[in-house]
Q: What sequence folds into this?
């Protein structure tokens, strides 16, 4: 659903790469793209760099994020690990080209209340709060995947800040 809303070629940054599941899927769905990985830990650096389409891997704290600009940034079950999600989204926006897109998926605390005691989840989200957060960070919602995303909140966003020229899809 999201891939049809992206250019044929581009640069993707996967934040919270872990085992590279997003990058493996991205290579299949976006074969003309350069894939960049970021994770807090570099334990799987070699494994990730050996994946098809992956051209870089960086690790450390969020100040170590690659500069970009990126056409797409993916936060797939990563934002809930941040104790400062607004700050992280703002930092990522500086790495996203104007008009660039971001995909976020996080657990929906209303549909999965058992997520609350997960020790490494610093932030918890429900739909209205997540939408407010991303708007405060300067994004506009392009697509809301609530209907097809079981127990999670999934958003496709665009980096357009407060610009009046950005119009939300219906």
A:
């Amino acid at each position: 659903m999201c891939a049809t809303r992206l250019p044929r070629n581009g640069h993707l940054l996967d934040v919270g790469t872990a085992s590279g599941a997003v990058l493996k899927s991205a290579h299949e769905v976006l074969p003309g793209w350069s894939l960049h990985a970021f994770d807090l830990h570099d334990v799987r650096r070699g494994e990730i760099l050996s994946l098809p389409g992956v051209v870089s891997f960086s690790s450390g704290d969020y100040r170590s994020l690659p500069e970009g600009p990126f056409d797409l940034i993916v936060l797939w079950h990563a934002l809930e690990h941040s104790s400062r999600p607004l700050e992280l989204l703002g930092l990522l926006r500086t790495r996203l080209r104007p008009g660039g897109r971001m995909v976020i998926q996080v657990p929906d605390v209303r549909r999965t209340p058992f997520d609350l005691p997960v020790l490494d989840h610093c932030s918890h989200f429900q739909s209205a709060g997540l939408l407010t957060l991303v708007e405060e960070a300067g994004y506009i919602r392009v697509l809301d995947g609530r209907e097809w995303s079981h127990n999670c909140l999934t958003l496709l966003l665009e980096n357009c800040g407060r610009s009046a020229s950005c119009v939300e899809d219906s």
